[in-house]
Amino acid sequence: ENSECVLQQAGCCPCSMGGEEKCMSKNEADVYRERIENCSKEQLCAAVYNCKEIACSCEKGNCVEK
């Protein structure tokens, strides 16, 4: 269902600092959040705004970007 799909930061750097966001299930997003909590405080991120206007939805059981 669409309510199970969320936009989640995909790495140590947020999209406002060169990272990216992805559409994924809430369960998968929990795994990503745990990984992000373990990112080094000394992680270097590019000062590049990489955020996009993305909506997530469910198609055939998969979370996809719209």
How would you characterize this protein structure?
With 66 residues, the chain is α+β, with helices and mostly antiparallel strands. The chain contains one helix and four strands; from the N terminus they run ββαββ. It has one helix at 26-37; strands at 5-9, 21-25, 56-59, 62-65. Helix content is 18%, strand content 27%. Strand 3 and strand 4 (62-65) form a beta hairpin.
Helix and strand layout, with pairings?
Blueprint: E1 5-9, E2 21-25, H1 26-37, E3 56-59, E4 62-65
Antiparallel strand pairs: 1-2, 3-4
Offer a few descriptive terms.
two-stranded antiparallel ribbon, alpha+beta, 66 residues, 27% strand, 4 strands, single chain, two-stranded antiparallel sheet
Low-confidence stretches: none
Number of strands: 4
Read across the widest sheet, the strand sequence of neighbours is 1-2
Instruction: Profile the largest sheet.
Output: 2 strands, antiparallel
Specify the structural class.
alpha+beta
How much helix, percentage-wise, in residues? 10-25%
Shape: flat
Alpha plus pi helix count: 1
- The oligomeric status of these chains comes to single chain
Order of helices and strands: EEHEE
Quick check: average pLDDT? 95
Strand content: 25-35%
Ends apart, CA distance between termini: 14 Å
Which value, in Å, is the CA radius of gyration?
13 Å
